[in-house]
Fold each of these.
Amino acid sequence: MNNQVEKVPVFRFTKEGTTSLEVEVAREFPVTIILNNVELVTMLCSPKDMKYLAAGFLSSEGLIKSKDEIKKILVDERRGVVRVDTVEDKALAEDFFSKRLITTGCGRGASFYNTADAAIKKIESTMVISPGEIFKLADEFQHGSEVYLSTHGVHSAALCDRKKILTFFEDVGRHNAIDKVFGKCLLEGIPTSDHLLMTSGRISSDSVSKAVQRSIPIIVSIAVPTDLSIRMANDFGITLVGHAASGRMNVYTCNQRIARDIKA
Amino acid sequence: MNNQVEKVPVFRFTKEGTTSLEVEVAREFPVTIILNNVELVTMLCSPKDMKYLAAGFLSSEGLIKSKDEIKKILVDERRGVVRVDTVEDKALAEDFFSKRLITTGCGRGASFYNTADAAIKKIESTMVISPGEIFKLADEFQHGSEVYLSTHGVHSAALCDRKKILTFFEDVGRHNAIDKVFGKCLLEGIPTSDHLLMTSGRISSDSVSKAVQRSIPIIVSIAVPTDLSIRMANDFGITLVGHAASGRMNVYTCNQRIARDIKA
C-alpha cells in the first residue's frame, strides 16, 4: 500500500481550536499508455498495478478482446509509461482519436500537470476567510443540492465570497459541476479572483487546474485532496481546504488565507 | 430540477424483507460540444445549464480566455448539442486532439451509448445470488480497502463469485479501479461471465459499458446508478444493484437473478 499513500502535514480546525498533525492522502500519478508505438492516452491514477490498468483500459475500449492479441506489456513504473504491443500491428490510433467521449467522472484538465514545464504564476490574492465562515458556507452548500438530496447521484460546486454562495450547480460529473460554475462566471462577468470555489468532490490535479485558469485563491472540498493536487496548489499558491463538514476542516496549503480567529 | 431527476421502480431488499417502491435517480445525458463547426467532445452530464457547461469546459481547457472571444453559443437541449463560434476562427481542434488526458474521474466508455445504433446482445447468465450473500460481500468489500480506510481518497472495485471476492483493486479514479479488475482477469484468464462486479462508485453508462465488454451479469454498487445506466442495464440484461450497504439494497433491473429467499 505504501506507494499509494503519502503523509502530509495539515492544520485541523474545529470549533474548539487548531491542531497541527500529519494525515495520509491518496497518491495521484499520470500514466501514459503507448500502443504499438503510438501514444494513446495519459490517465491520472493510483501508481500501482499499471499493467492491469493498461490491459483493462484497452479491453474496455474494445481495442483488445483477448490476452492472445497481446505480444508484450512493458511497465516503466518510475516514468509512468506502459508500452503495449499487439500481435497484429493494428492501426488503431486514428479511429480512437476521432471519437472523444468524456464520461461522468471526467473533465479532462487543460493539460497534464508537470512542475518542470509548467510556467507557474502564483495566484496573488489577499483574501482571508475565517474557519467559522467556511463552516457556515459548507453547511449551506451541503443543504443546497435538491438533486443530491433526492437522488444521492450528483456532485455540486459553487463560487462563494466570504459570506455567501454566489453561483451553485449540480451535475452527475464532478468536473462538470465546476465547469458550469466557471462557465456562468465567464458569460455573466462574475469575477472569480478573490473568491472561493467549493466542491462536493475529491480534489485531484484536474480540479486544481480548472481553479488556476480562473485565478481562484481558495478551494474548499467536502471530500479530500490527492497528493498531486496538494503539490500543485502549493506551487500555484492556492489555499486547499478539505474534509470541510460538521464544523471541522483540514488546511493542506497556504494557510495564510485562513484567519486565526475562528469567528473573525 | 425536474429534467435532472427521473423516477424509477425498484425492489428494496432489507434483512426484514422486500418492498416494491419508486425512487428518484439522477439523469445522465450525452452533450456534444461543436467549436467552429468541429466536433470537439461528447460529455456525459446532467441535462441542464449546457451553455454554462460548454463555456466552462472551453475555458478550463484554455481554449477561450474571455467572453469577448465568443461570437455565439447555440444550445439544442433536445439533441444535446452546443455549438460555440468564436470571433476568430481558431484552428484549435488538431492541437486539442493530439493531447489526450484522462483525469481521475474518468475512464471513457468504449463508445457513447445509443440504443438506436447499438448492436445489443443480451448477456446470458443463469447466475442467481441471494440478498444475504450480497450483503455479506458488500460488507467484506467495504472493509477491504486499506487505502480508503487511511485516506478516504480512492474508489475500489472487485470481481466476486457468490461467496467471495476474487480480485480487488483501488484507484483514485473510479473507472480505473474497474479497469484494473478486468485487466487482471484478462491477463490471468480469470472468467468474468457468471460473476459479479462490485464498485464503490456511482454507476453511470460508462461503468455499464465496461461490464458489457466482459459479459458481467450482475453489477453491485455501494452508491447509486444514473437513469441512463439503468436503461442500458435493462437493454443488455444486466442486473443492477445499488445502495448496497448495511444490510439493504435496491435492485433496479433484471431481478430474476436475485433469489427470493434472503439467505438462500
Note: Helices of chain B lie at 50-60, 93-98, 131-142, 146-151, 174-188, 205-213, 227-236.
Amino acid sequence: MTPFRVRILGSNSSQASFGRFLPSHLLTVDNKSYLIDCGEGTQFQMTKYKIKRNRIQAVFISHLHGDHLFGLPGFLSSFHHFNRYEALRIFGPPGIKQFINVCLDASFAHLGYSLYIHEITENDVPSLIFEDNKIEVFAFPLKHRVPTIGFRFNEKVPKLNIKPDAIERYRLSVDQVKELKSGRNVILSDGNVLTIQEACFEKAIARSYAYVSDTVYDESIVEHIKEVDLLFHETTYIHDLVNDARDRMHSTTKEAAEIAKKAKVKKLIIGHYSSRYADITPFESECKEIFPDSHMGVDGYVFDIIK
Amino acid sequence: MTPFRVRILGSNSSQASFGRFLPSHLLTVDNKSYLIDCGEGTQFQMTKYKIKRNRIQAVFISHLHGDHLFGLPGFLSSFHHFNRYEALRIFGPPGIKQFINVCLDASFAHLGYSLYIHEITENDVPSLIFEDNKIEVFAFPLKHRVPTIGFRFNEKVPKLNIKPDAIERYRLSVDQVKELKSGRNVILSDGNVLTIQEACFEKAIARSYAYVSDTVYDESIVEHIKEVDLLFHETTYIHDLVNDARDRMHSTTKEAAEIAKKAKVKKLIIGHYSSRYADITPFESECKEIFPDSHMGVDGYVFDIIK
C-alpha cells in the first residue's frame, strides 16, 4: 500500500521550548509531499528528519502569525541547494503574497523554480483549493484572532487495477478494461456479466487528514472534518486554562477531543502546546478521557494511515 | 574588570549544517549587549545559551542575504515573552526597513517597545553610526555581491575613578574631582600639583572588536580594523577553493589571516563556514600558519577580551 503519512516537524506554539520547534506538518501521499505551516526552523527539522524536500508540491499556511510563518523565507530560499526546478504552490490568507515577495526581494533570493502564491480570502472558504493526481485539498474557516484556515486533505481514490490474467481469460477489449478500471461491470461477448470483484484487485480506500490550527472551540468545523482518518486539532492548553484559551482564541485538550468525537474521526493528533508546559504528557491523558484514540504529536513523530 | 565578550550564536553560512547555526554574534560590554547579524534560528540559540536578550541595545545587520537576516522577524516578535519596553535600534543596508515592517505587519506583531530602523547607504560609510555610554560603532564598506557593511565596536574609555581616600587627604573640591576624573592634573590650594596617577586608580584601556562578514579578500578594510583586540573575519572556504571564494565574493582561511596580519589585530576569530565542510578543524590550522593567534568560532564559543 502506498504511504499516507503525517510527520510532525514542530509541535510547540509561539516560541520554541523544551526541544519542541514551531508549527509545521508534512503530509506524504505516495511519492508526493505537502507542507502545512512553516514556523522558524522548519528547514532545520527537514534536515534532521531527512525529508526529501523536492517532493513537496505545495505549501499550506493556516494563518500569518509568526510562529506559523517565519520559516518560509529560509525554506523557499534554500531550494537552490537541492536543485529544485519544479514549480511550487503556496496557499495562505491575504498578505502572504506581499510577505513572501518582500522577503525574497530584500534578500536577493534567486529561485530556480516558479512560485505561485494563492491568497485564500474569507469568500473562498469552504471550497476545494488544490488538487493533483494524489489529493484534493479543501479549505474551511477557523475562528482565531486573525484570518485562519483549516485544511482537509482527501486522497484521490486510485483507479482499480485489473488482475494480470483477466484480460486474456475474458478476452477483454481496451474499452472493457477502461470500464472495469473506472469501477463499472462489463458484459462479455458470451453475454455473461464480468464484475469488478472478479476482474480487479480489491479497491483501495481513500484516506484523509484534516489540520485544525489555530482555533477557539468551534462546532461549526465538524461538517468539514467529518469522519477523517486523522485529525490534527490544536490543544494550546490543558483544560484547567479554558478561560485563557477563550481569551486567546485557542482550544484545550477536552475541547479538541470533543470536536474529534462529534466529527467521528478515526484518530486525533494533538499539539501546538503553549511554551509554559515542560511536561506535555497530561495533554494526551485528558484527551483520551473523551476520545480514546488521541495521540500526542511531538517533533519527529510519524502517523501512518493504513487501510 | 567589566566584561567585553563576543559570543558566537551561529557559525555556518548559507544553510545550517553539522549542528552549526546561521550567522549571529553577540557582543556584551559590561551590562549591555549588541547583536550582529541574525540568521534563522538565532532566537533558539539565545534560549540555548541563556542570553539575557533584554540587555540588547541595538542590532547590526551586515547585509540582507537570508542567512544573516531571516531570524530577525522571530527575534523581534518574541520580545513580548520577555516584557521588553526599552527601545531597540536596528542598523542595516537599504531594504531592511521594508523587510522588517512587512514581516511585522503581515504577522500582526504587536511590539511593546519602540523600534528605530536605520538604513546605512553607501554614502554613509565609513562613519560613526551609533554610540551609547559603553561603545562607539563605526561602519565601513565590504566588497560582497550585495551591499555589505563591516562594523567596528570601540569601547568607550571609562572615566577615571578617584581613590576613596584622596578627596579627604587633599581636600578636593567638586570641580577638582571633575578635573581629575576627566584625566587632567589639578593644582592644590598649597600650590602643589596633584597628578591623576596619585589621585586615581589605573585607567582602564578601551577594548575593540571588528566584524567582517561577508567579503572577498580586500586590503582596503585594513585601515578600518587596525589593531583591534578581536577581529572576526569570514572564512567561507579552505584556501584550496580560493577560486570559488573569488567567484562568490567570499574569503579563504589564508586571506582572512593575511588581513589580520596586515591590520596588526591582536586575535582573529574565523567562521561563516560553507556547509560543504563536516570537519572545520583545518580552517584554524591554515590560518595559524599566517596568523598564529587564530581561533575557530563555533556556536556557543565565547571570546573575552581582558586587558
Note: Chain A has a mean pLDDT of 96.
